[in-house]
Amino acid sequence: MKVFIAGCGTMGSGIAQTFAVNGHEVVMFDRTMELVDRGYAGIEKQLTRQAERGRMTAEEVGAALQRLSRSVDLKDASDASLVLEAIYEEMSVKRELFEALDVICAPECLFGSNTSSLSITEMANGLQHEEKFLGIHFFNPAPVMKLVEIIRGDATSDETMGAALDLVRSIGKEPVICRESPGFIVNRILIPMINEAVDLLDRGVASREDIDQAMKLGANHPMGPLELADFVGVDIVLAIMEVLYRETGDPKYRPSLMLKRLVRAGKLGRKSGEGFYQYKK
């Protein structure tokens, strides 16, 4: 099966790696070859590390890398069985991408979005592939995390849902089904929890270390909510909270002002070197 992955950042590269390791031909696409090459180099590094740890053979690594091709041309999606976007979390940008792919791809091609919170129905509306469109939401790091949320849009067909479930299981993941709702399942629960932790910190209720320690020891979480915000990306947390607030109008989803301050200061977490904690770059 040929899979066309649009976006070679952390999530796109991780998804591409997952499909390639599990025997699928993968096209890695982005706006520039520099971005594509950077994503490919990250995969190569990850797979080499797996071989060094004895989790893969050199032959398996080589075969997986052979299944990866690099592209800056959307026409390379023309014979794909699945196109999956993992680009910037902005509806207009995603719509523009899918409208272009809509006239390139075969009628039977599945259209998937890795969006963490945006409307699948809005993204698919008016496309020829509307019945073939759904959310396929992986979690970071995609090669490791077992869960994939399968989100059904208003026009998604039963056939499309069944094909997506089979595909996700074939790459060793566990799917859960969700009808369209802001934030779907995990982020609808998780991101407001992180937002509440940020608000506690901003109000001076407790230190960042004690907030994280409390949730690790008191709720048996492997990572504290502020550590997790840095891992996910403070900007991503803010973007999801803004979608939840805008879509529901419920004040309980109002983003913490501290999230906004950090994003405006460029303190986005691990990827920028500083968020709620500082990291070596």
Short overview:
With 281 residues, this protein is of the alpha/beta class.
Question: Can you put this structure into words, describing what you see?
Answer:
The protein is an alpha/beta fold. It has eleven helices and eight strands. The chain has helices spanning 10-21, 33-52, 58-66, 91-102, 120-124, 158-170, 186-202, 208-218, 225-232, 234-248, 257-264, and strands at residues 2-6, 25-29, 68-71, 82-85, 110-113, 133-138, 147-152, 174-179. It has an eight-stranded mixed β-sheet, with helices on both faces. A hairpin with an 8-residue loop joins strand 6 and strand 7 (147-152). Helix 1 packs across helix 2 (33-52). It is globular, with a radius of gyration of 19 Å. The relative contact order is 0.09. The mean pLDDT is 97.
Strand order of the largest sheet: 3-2-1-4-5-6-7-8
Gross geometry: globular
Number of strands: 8
Strand content: 5-15%
The H/E string reads EHEHHEEHEHEEHEHHHHH
End-to-end distance: 38 Å
Query: What's the rounded overall pLDDT mean?
Result: 97
Please, how many helices?
A: 11
Give the C-alpha Rg. Answer: 19 Å
* Helical coverage, percent range: 40-55%
- Summing up helix and strand content along with how strands pair, one would put the structural category as alpha/beta
Residue ranges: pLDDT <50 for 5 or more in a row? Answer: none
Major pleated sheet: 8 strands, mixed
